[in-house]
Amino acid sequence: MPEALNGSLAWPAYLAALALGYLLGSIPFGVILTRFAGLGDVRQIGSGNIGATNVLRTGHKGLAAATLLGDALKGTAAVLVAWNWGPNTAILAAIGAFLGHLFPVWLGFKGGKCVATFLGCLIGLNLWAALAFAVIWLAGAFTSRYSSLAALVASAATPVVLWLLGQPHMAWAFVLLAALLWWKHRENLTRLAAGTESRIGR
Q1: Which of 50, 95, 146, 174 could form a disulfide with 30 if both were Cys (CB 3.0 to 4.6 A apart)?
Q2: How far apart are CA 57 and CA 45, in angstroms?
Q3: Contacts for 165-170 with beta carbons within 8 Å, 24 or more apart?
Q4: How does DSSP assign the chain, residue by residue?
Q5: Distance CA 74, CA 72 (A)
Q6: Mean pLDDT of 123-152
Q7: Cβ-contact 79, 95 below 8 angstroms
Q8: 202: pLDDT confidence band, cut at 50, 70 and 90?
Q9: What are the pLDDT digits (tens) for 168-190?
Q10: Rounded Cα gap, residues 47 and 55, in angstroms
Q11: Dihedral of alpha carbons 200, 158, 113, 16, sign
Q12: HSE on the CB side for 139, CA within 13 Å?
């Protein structure tokens, strides 16, 4: 397989990678799985979010785990398919998948908070960075008991980790993704500042 694309083939491949990533990222596993399970629309319960944390509020841990896995692996799948045409194409597929989860066409462009898809894209692009994200998240969650804070810290650290691993292009891409993830968590940030954010296990 070619390691990179040049000339007239590059831009069509880049656009295709973005489109592929977006379409895969737009698959709303939380909505699909809860509906198939006969639990109605997950957007009508709890926070109204389509991610695993809100699916867990249905009381079905298995569905929440399946949602988490699906939301992560759609990012990984987009990256691995696009990697056949080079790392830059894979990075664009990751951006597309992330944007697809944030703004899914099937749900009126109102998506989730994208932590699982962020991690899934990292798994496809750089496994060491993904492991670092997981370790930082676990450490943050264990010490603070705030899942959202752990995710915010881990996402902010990711571009630095990628840079240290010698992946500057990926690092810059994840600066953008981390900024969008923080923007999506703006209500969590407000609650964290006010001391009203929900803690893990409560």
Answers
A1: 50
A2: 8
A3: 165/126, 165/128, 165/129, 167/125, 167/126, 167/129, 169/87, 169/88, 169/91, 170/87, 170/91, 170/125, 170/126, 170/129
A4: --S---GGGHHHHHHHHHHHHHHHHT--HHHHHHHHTT---GGGSTT---SHHHHHTTT-HHHHHHHHHHHHHHHHHHHHHHGGG-HHHHHHHHHHHHHHHHS-GGGTT-----HHHHHHHHHHH-HHHHHHHHHHHHHHHHHH--HHHHHHHHHHHHHHHHHHTT-HHHHHHHHHHHHHHHHHTHHHHHHHHHT-SPPTT-
A5: 6
A6: 94
A7: no
A8: low
A9: 999 999 999 999 999 999 999 99
A10: 10
A11: negative
A12: 9
**Predicted confidence (pLDDT) at residue 150 exceeds the cutoff of 50:** yes
Using an 8 Å Cβ cutoff, are 93 and 138 in contact? no
Q: Which structure tokens are listed for 177?
A: 């993704």
The pLDDT tens digits for 54-94 are 787 777 788 889 999 999 999 999 999 999 889 999 999 99
158 C-beta neighbours (distance < 10 Å), count:
26
Which amino acid, one-letter code, is at 172? Answer: W
Count of positions (residues) in the chain:
202
Closest Cα to residue 5, out of 91, 86, 95?
Answer: 86
